[in-house]
Structure formats: structure tokens, C-alpha cells
Amino acid sequence: MASSIQMHRRRPEATPSRAQRGGGDSEHDARTDAVTLAVLATGEAIFSNTTWRGKRCMRVSVCNWQTGASDVARAVSAMRQVLLARMAGAAVRWLKR
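Above: the chain sequence. Below: its structure as C-alpha cells.
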């Protein structure tokens, strides 16, 4: 199965800074760690964290010689479920304000 990955860089003026969005580095790091742990808890993918240029990042490895398309799909699905659950939780908290 052939696939292509396209990277898109946003223009700096179109992307608000963390300060403009109301979040700082510590909030970013905490969210990154929480998402990684949640994906691990699904048992569908093995993500880990690292620090790069002073910020927490996810290390995602889904390919090796035994990995198939269904394995990658499971990893993507696990991440999607975690992010959707976090978004739903944020929406509920916002509505309760």
C-alpha cells in the first residue's frame, strides 16, 4: 500500500502564540504527557514522551518490518479516540462555566 505524507507549515502570522491562546509551556507539557498516557492505556499503541528544545513531545513509532496497515490504523484510531474524549471533556467544562 503506497501512501504519502504531506507536511504543511502554517504562516506564523496566522497561528496564535500560546500566550494568545491562554496556555503556557507547562500546560502544553502536561497535555502532552496526559495524551501519551491515555493512548498507552488503550493498549493499541506504544507512545512515549521526550523533551525536545525544552518542550515535551510525543515519540510515536508505528512502523517496523512486522507492521501492517491495520497496525497503523489502530494507532491512529487510538489517538483519535483519546483526542475526541479530551475535546468532549473540555466542551463539558466550558458549558459548566
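The mean pLDDT is 79.
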